[in-house]
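ok trying again, last paste got cut off:
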Amino acid sequence: MPCESTENPAPARRETVDVTTDGTQTTVRFGDAYPSQTGWVISIGLESKVAGTAPEFTLTMSDQWLGSAELNVGDQNGGIMACQGGRFLCPFPTVSFDFFDGVAAGGGTQPRVQLIARPLSNNQASGASTQLRGVSQAAINASANNDFSAPLGAIAYWVARPSDGGDVDITVEDGAGSAVEVYSLSDASAAYPLQAPAPWRDVPIWNNGSTAPVINVAPGAGTGSGTIYKIHWLFDLATLR
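nice, full thing came through this time. structure:
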């Protein structure tokens, strides 16, 4: 019979995070402790939910690369949502979380988040998804427009049209500033909002890995003043981007 490894697996880690509401971040880091580690299964639960707040986080991940290479997912343009909690696989041995309040109203009660990180070693199966979600939003008046910069690591997006009517024109630019998609959302169909799964579209490429693609949203006539528009972002920690 093959011998089992004599290495002691890294223990699960537990952390409690009080998410600040003043625009600052709280950092939690897992990893750098076990040579055969390949990733973490992360469980997130909210101990206290606070009205008017939106707990979000960004990820900084690294492997046993030479040098100082890192992989970042999410940023201040769009963090990863933790408003209800969940479970996901981070397929990297070292991961750092930066928690913040996506609303950042300031001065309010801080929502409390509980984390458990369970290590994976030697390509163990995780039973968890590598996909995560985020949302960006802005109030836009009729005949105005707003640029939404894609957050780091986003691989797909979709624009949600508000229910108060009016067409929405969308222009998508890659990281070099070239328009690669131009289309409209219309309220002419009785089937809107869509009853099918979210119509995800690919996020265009970044310019040299540093300049973000932009989704420009321009409401048409008939839109209420200051209507809130949202863009949903899809992240996948196991996708090369």
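cool. Confidence is low (pLDDT under 50) at residues 1-6. The chain has two domains: 13-129, 133-236.
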